[in-house]
């Protein structure tokens, strides 16, 4: 039956194109001009969608006033950083500060801590992640944190991953939002039940991480568009928000699917995803705080994701204009302020 049905579809498709061509000949319009117009209409439509969404992102940004105390605009915790990877947690934590958080903590291994501290005096660094009391230590800090970003530079050591499992359980018990990236996604691929149905979680997989998660969660990810694949993964995880990074970022909470096509650059140096995860941590806090009047019925986490994706790509664009081939993530971080202003404050 299937081959016959397939042949029927091909014949029907060919007949439709023939009919369309005939009509176009009648009106003296070339087929490629019509198709081009149809696609540019589609493109214009998605640019309009993106602009509407960015307008809502602007709504969730807390106003800067003289009435606030330190900490109100965001206290973010990054869980990651081990012997091999010290740059990733630094990039995530400093990006959170540069976007506008007031305090940024890093929970990393004992060995990684002095290295991360030496990059920046602005970060608060806890050398606890490989200690037997890791979960307890982070748990003590949780009441003072708004969001956890879990995974940048975490590595895949079993003891660390076991500790992170405990930290995630503790965060969920307190209803603290979590952004899961990098090796945090490796952990979720091994234990998807850890986040099943937790609506305050956002996953930010790159190409490889997305395929690994889909394999683990859906077994047979099947065919279909990028949009469908992301939506399916989100649904299978109980509507956690999924941000698949790539040429276009695809974002879904299982119900809606958004795409971010903000112009970035062709530079693919490591660390850009870490910048995104730290920025997202702050925006998640702001979006959840904003309330329905500001978000106008849109999912706060989708708005936060769209904001972080647009910002990261704009940083990449601006840094590339200045540094070209030699652009690195440090150059992008220097653009966070101007890029944020350009996208959300003008
Ligand atoms: N400066 C730093 O400290 C950085 C650390 N990072 C950390 O590095 C850790 C690993 O993350 P990655 O995203 O690099 O993941 P992987 O180490 O799994 O992959 C790194 C790259 O290797 C390639 N690759 C992966 N599997 C491959 C295969 N089977 N065959 C051929 N090529 C393959 C892909 O290009 C992939 O992007 C994470 O903890 C991450 O946060 C990154 O965030 C980059 C920056
Ligand atoms: N082909 C591409 N074209 C344009 N932008 C891209 C492309 N691929 C990724 N990006 C952008 O680069 C940023 C980081 O995505 P990427 O897939 O490199 O993450 P990552 O591999 O997790 O990075 P990291 O090295 O920090 O771990 C995102 O903002 C994404 O939109
Ligand atoms: Mg990454």
Automatic annotation (TrEMBL):
Q: Which reaction does it catalyse?
A: (6S)-NADHX + ATP = ADP + phosphate + NADH + H(+); (6S)-NADPHX + ATP = ADP + phosphate + NADPH + H(+)
- Detail which positions bind ATP: 245-249, 264-273
Q: Which GO terms describe its cellular component?
A: mitochondrion
Where, by residue number, does (6S)-NADPHX bind?
153, 206-212, 274
Limits of the YjeF C-terminal domain: 53-343
Task: Give the required cofactors.
Answer: Mg(2+)
Q: What class of enzyme is it?
A: lyase
Organism classification, top ranks?
Answer: Eukaryota, Metazoa, Chordata, Craniata, Vertebrata
Chief localization class? mitochondrion
UniProt-listed Enzyme Commission number(s): 4.2.1.93
Q: Which UniProt keywords apply?
A: ATP-binding, Lyase, Mitochondrion, NAD, NADP, Nucleotide-binding, Phosphoprotein
Q: Do you know which PROSITE patterns this protein is assigned to?
A: YJEF_C_3
Alphabetized NCBIfam families for the sequence? yjeF_cterm
Family recorded in the similarity comment = Belongs to the NnrD/CARKD family.
Any one GO biological process: nicotinamide nucleotide metabolic process
**Does the keyword NADP belong to this entry?**
yes
The record's subcellular locations are:
Mitochondrion
Q: Describe its function.
A: Catalyzes the dehydration of the S-form of NAD(P)HX at the expense of ATP, which is converted to ADP. Together with NAD(P)HX epimerase, which catalyzes the epimerization of the S- and R-forms, the enzyme allows the repair of both epimers of NAD(P)HX, a damaged form of NAD(P)H that is a result of enzymatic or heat-dependent hydration.
InterPro entries per the record?
CARKD, Ribokinase-like
What's a Gene Ontology MF term here?
Answer: ATP-dependent NAD(P)H-hydrate dehydratase activity
Q: Fetch the HAMAP family from UniProt.
A: NADHX_dehydratase (MF_01965)
- Protein name stated in the entry: ATP-dependent (S)-NAD(P)H-hydrate dehydratase
**CDD domains this protein is in?**
YXKO-related (cd01171)
């Amino acid at each position: 039956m299937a081959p016959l049905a397939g042949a029927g579809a091909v014949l029907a498709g060919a007949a439709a194109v023939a009919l369309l061509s005939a009509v176009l000949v009648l009106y003296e319009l070339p087929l490629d001009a019509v198709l081009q117009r149809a696609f540019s209409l589609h493109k214009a439509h998605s640019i309009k969608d993106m602009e509407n969404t960015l307008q809502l992102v602007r709504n969730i940004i807390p106003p800067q006033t003289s009435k606030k105390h330190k900490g109100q605009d965001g206290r973010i915790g990054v869980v990651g950083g081990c012997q091999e990877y010290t740059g990733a947690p630094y990039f995530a934590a400093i990006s959170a500060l540069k976007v506008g958080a007031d305090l940024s903590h890093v929970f990393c291994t004992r060995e990684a801590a002095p290295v991360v501290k030496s990059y920046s005096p602005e970060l608060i660094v806890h050398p606890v992640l490989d200690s037997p009391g890791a979960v307890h230590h982070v748990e003590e800090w949780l009441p003072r944190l708004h969001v956890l970003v879990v995974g940048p530079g975490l590595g895949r050591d079993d003891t660390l991953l076991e500790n992170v499992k405990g930290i995630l359980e503790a965060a969920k018990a307190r209803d603290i939002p979590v952004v899961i990236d990098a090796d945090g996604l490796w952990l979720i691929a091994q234990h998807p039940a850890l986040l099943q149905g937790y609506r305050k979680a956002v996953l930010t997989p790159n190409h490889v991480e997305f395929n690994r998660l889909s394999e683990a969660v859906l077994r047979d990810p099947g065919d279909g568009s990028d949009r469908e694949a992301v939506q399916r993964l989100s649904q299978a995880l109980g509507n956690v928000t999924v941000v698949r990074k790539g040429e276009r970022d695809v974002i879904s909470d299982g119900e809606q699917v958004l795409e971010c096509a903000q112009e970035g650059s062709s530079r693919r140096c490591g660390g850009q995803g870490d910048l995104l995860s730290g920025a997202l941590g702050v925006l998640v806090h702001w979006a959840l705080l904003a309330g329905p009047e500001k978000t106008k019925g849109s999912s706060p986490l989708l708005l936060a994701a769209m904001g972080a994706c647009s910002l990261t790509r704009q940083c990449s664009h601006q840094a590339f204009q200045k540094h070209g081939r030699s652009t690195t993530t440090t150059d992008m971080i220097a653009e966070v302020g101007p890029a944020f202003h350009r996208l959300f404050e003008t």
